[in-house]
Design goal:
The protein is an alpha+beta fold. The protein is built from 5 helices and 3 strands, in the order H-H-E-H-H-E-E-H. It has one domain: Winged helix-like DNA-binding domain superfamily/Winged helix DNA-binding domain (Arc Repressor Mutant, subunit A, Orthogonal Bundle), CATH 1.10.10. A hairpin with a 5-residue loop joins strand 2 and strand 3.
C-alpha cells in the first residue's frame, strides 16, 4: 500500500521527467532506470514496472526517447532507451517549470509569512 501511495503522490509528469533526466546521463534498459531512480533518491522513490513501462511507452510515442534491442551484461535481451533531441528540449522546459513551481510552494510554506 505504501508504494501505491508514493506513486499517487508524484505529480503528473514527475516520472517522465525523472526518466528523461536519467537517460540524459546514459542510455539504459528499464530495470536499470528504475534502480537508478531508487538509488539516487536514497530509496524514497521505488518505481514499479506497472508505472515505468507505460511511461516509457508514452515517451516513445511522443518521440522523446528511442529504443533498440541489445544484449545485457547477463546475456539477456533488453531494450535500451536513449534520449532524443526532442526529449532533451522537453526535459529542459519541464525542469524549468518544476523549479518555478517549487519556488512558489517554498515561498508559501516559509515560516513567518501569512
Amino acid at each position: 500500500m505504501k508504494n501505491r501511495r508514493q506513486q499517487r503522490d508524484l505529480f503528473p509528469g514527475a516520472l517522465e521527467m525523472m526518466i528523461l533526466r536519467t537517460l540524459k546521463r546514459q542510455p539504459l534498459h528499464g530495470y536499470a532506470l528504475a534502480q537508478h531512480i531508487k538509488r539516487t533518491s536514497k530509496g524514497l522513490l521505488q518505481i514499479e514496472e506497472g508505472s515505468l513501462y507505460p511511461a516509457l511507452q508514452r515517451l516513445l510515442k511522443e518521440e522523446m526517447v528511442k529504443a533498440e534491442w541489445n544484449i545485457s551484461s547477463t546475456n539477456r535481451r533488453v531494450r535500451i532507451y536513449k534520449l532524443t533531441a526532442k526529449g532533451t528540449k522537453h526535459l529542459e522546459h519541464e525542469v524549468s517549470r518544476f523549479e518555478r513551481m517549487l519556488e512558489g510552494i517554498t515561498q508559501v510554506l516559509a515560516p513567518g509569512e501569512s
